[in-house]
Amino acid sequence: MLSEINKNNVKELREYLDSRSQEIDSEILIKVNSIIKDVISHKDEALRNYTMLFDKVELNEIRATEEEIDEACQKCDPFFMESMERAKENIIYFHQAQIEHSYLLQKEKGIYMGERVLPLESVGIYVPGGRAQYPSSVLMNAIPAKVAGVKRIVMVTPPNKEGKINPNIAFAAKLAGVTEIYKVGGAQAIAALAYGTETIRPVDKIVGPGNIFVASAKKLVYGKVDIDMIAGPSEILVIADEEADPVYIAADLLSQAEHDPMASPILLTVSEKLLNEVNAELKRQSALLPKKEIVEASLRDYGKSILCDTIEECIAFANAIAPEHLELMVKDPMPYLNQVMHAGSVFLGYYTCESIGDYFGGTNHVLPTSGTARFSSALGVDAFVKRSCFLHYTKEALEEYGKYIISMAEEEQLQGHANAVKVRVSK
Fold it and tell me: Which partner for 263 in 42, 75, 205, 234 could form a disulfide, CB atoms 3.0-4.6 Å apart?
């Protein structure tokens, strides 16, 4: 089920995986740009028109009322609600450790300087509609913003055929502290968040997953607002020793394969026997999954395995791939953790399946894909703050150090900069 590749071809593997995330087609960008311009010009009217066109729903009220949200929440399964509440506790616990504080530095002659860490004033969260509903993603996007101190957290999501919000999404939003919910989706929702309409005030940053039209819209509005990332197909890479259970490994590989035909499940192991056992398990378990066709396409096209000599060699290859999810399925994982340099999130040991991180463990599941873990991070509190520096010089300090500033400014032929110092030190 997993096609084995030579360990000398790891670079080619990363390039092959990267081929899944092609540049967005220019025709799609043109269509999306047209939608954005329409929303800028016609605002709520455009949102209603596109909701009728794409979702076949006539929107009377764009914003969900508190009564509508409460009514939707009452339809949720009680045990699901308890599960979400417990997950919320874990997510808050983890993300509170990420809070950074402002600081003040003092030097001689009355010089002081520092940096203020300030929350963004408003954030928009996109939540997909359709068959796939991911209330866990609402928690993962909204809770870090709440912990960061963001006051206005806005959610946009397509309405169902009755023009209502999915009950589980409504409950997740209420639980996570979302302050406003609007029943619009697609590129038009991204445009509304970026530029505003009569009903929706614009936000400072947009986060959350979506289809190619949503991704294109986020790309086009970036600069007007900030965005989180343009996510590619999911990846899981499992590093396994001889004692790892092939049943566990296969289950974990399949947990990501069911996301998307272009999802990539990869196994690096030191045991050829284990590799054969995992392939047998993949065949057995994939036949039992509801999304069998998606799983089989993922395994066939992007399922790979590499046989290595040592766990250290496995980790070196994993660093070259920089996977979104990395499982260290080895007997004693902690000594190996410091060797891992490039991974979105790392799961340690035989029992820490990636699903724990997706839903309950507390670490964020919004992760860098397509090798971008080399330079980017999981979504967290730092994504929802900005930093503002401050600086203070006394007259005495400027008289002491002004000559250096003047020298540097004049060397760059910026006499105005130099004069701003000279007029102060000449008095």
Answer: 234
Q: 301: closest CA among 17, 21, 22, 25?
A: 17
**pTM for the whole structure:** 0.94
| Pairwise CA distance, residues 214 & 210, whole Å | 5
Distances (CA, A) of 82 to 77, 90, 96, 256, 306: 9, 13, 21, 25, 41
What contacts 306, CB < 8 A, 6 or more positions away?
Answer: 4, 5, 6, 7, 10, 13, 266, 267, 268, 269, 314, 317
Residue 22 gets which letter from DSSP?
Answer: P
Provide the annotated active-site residues: 324-325
Q: Which pLDDT belongs to residue 70? A: 97
Residue 120 to residue 246: CA distance in whole angstroms: 46
pLDDT surpasses 60 at 203: yes
Give me the residues paired with residue 227 across strands.
206
Question: What domains lie within the chain, and their CATH numbers?
Answer: 3-21+232-361 (3.40.50.1980), 26-99+119-227 (3.40.50.1980), 393-425 (no CATH)
Could you count the other beta carbons within 10 Å of the beta carbon of residue 97?
Answer: 10
Query: Taking a C-beta distance cutoff of 8 angstroms, is the pair 10, 275 a contact?
Result: no
pLDDT given for residue 269 in this prediction: 97
Give the burial class of 40: count Cβ atoms within 10 A of its Cβ; 0-12 exposed, 13-18 middle, 19 or more buried.
Answer: middle
To the nearest 10°, report the CA torsion of 38, 41, 43, 47.
-10
Nearest to 112 by CA among 97, 102, 121: 102
What is the number of other CB atoms lying within 10 angstroms of the CB of residue 94?
A: 18
> Side-chain half-sphere of 124: how many Cα atoms within 13 Å?
26
